[in-house]
Amino acid sequence: xxxxxxxxxxxxxxxxxxxxxxxxxxxxIPSLARIAHxxxxxxxxxFRATFGETPHRYLQRxxxxxxxxxMRESRRSITDICFxxxxxxxxxxxxxxxxxxxxxxxxxxxRTPVRLAPNCFTMAWTxxxxxxxxxxxxxx
Length: 140
Known about the structure:
The protein is mainly alpha-helical. It has helices at residues 3-21, 29-36, 40-51, 55-73, 78-84, 90-101, 105-111, 119-126, 135-138.
């Protein structure tokens, strides 16, 4: 791996780490591009080339993952969870959740029992994937 590629990867990781830390807050491309020390257009292209999805989709998936965790660990309302993870509307949250997970938040909550395994195992087992099969083809 060349030094330039390694440096670019580190910059993208820095931006992704910022997204992971602040997923519930409003994030925009200009601020993420500044973190990575690149232009906005270059940031979007490079992020997608590095991680296989756009920054926006990564942030949506990260928020949905956190929502899934909150649904497994608490009895908070779905609306409360929607806003707690950074979505601005319940409709957008529900549509995005269904696109990523393959079922609605309420269906997921009904189907998913409280897990007694360590959190690291639960996260690995239930993590939605943006690679491979499309969400629509996972439904039986």
